[in-house]
Amino acid sequence: MQSDTLLHAANFSTLFVCMVLKFPQIFVLMRAKATTGVSLNSLLLELIGFIVFVTYQMYYDYPPPTYLEYPILIAQDVVLLLLIFHYDGRLRQSLVYILLFVGGWRLLTVEKWIIDSAMSLCTFISGASKLAQLQCLWRSREAGQVSAMTWAMASYTCLVRIYTTAVTTRDTQVLVRFVVITVLNLWVLLTVIYYQRRGRKSE
Predict the structure, then answer these.
(1) Residues contacting 162, CB < 8 A, separation 6+
(2) Dihedral of the CA atoms 101, 102, 104, 106 (nearest 10)?
(3) Which of 65, 110, 113, 177 is the most buried (most CB within 10 A)?
(4) pLDDT digits over 136-147, tens only?
(5) CATH for 189
(6) pTM (global) more than 0.85
């Protein structure tokens, strides 16, 4: 009974945090009207990882509470993608990416082996998205418009998902993905905080 209560609380807290997870980053971009430090490649890879992951969970009829936040995160990432293209003066290009994402999502469920293969690559795709953001930060040597709050919330939700996956589906692929992504999210968070503090000192 106690474990069920803890599981429900974990699922609810994750869903609640994910409902606003990208808001700090969205507000930072809208306020600055610039995308310094925010990696487009990271966002695109993250979107691919989210789409593959939620499609895999739905395909195998996993309990909705274990993945319900992903459609919300995808919607927020699309808003971020549009903002980045808008402030970079390339808004028309966003339509091409949106069409590719929709087409790719439809392709995933054509055959079982396709979604299984995509899921086996999902950890690498999601991991690559975090490494792309780290590379962008290292190259610019400043946090720019990257929101530490967004990365802190992302780290929390992945930590919680390690627990919920371990006590529900026990899917090894999913569990490994969350462990890897948690470590990389924390790495990005610490890097952003480091550059933010260094920027304040230089001022």
Answers:
(1) 175, 178, 179, 182
(2) 160
(3) 177
(4) 999 988 888 899
(5) 1.20.1280.290
(6) yes
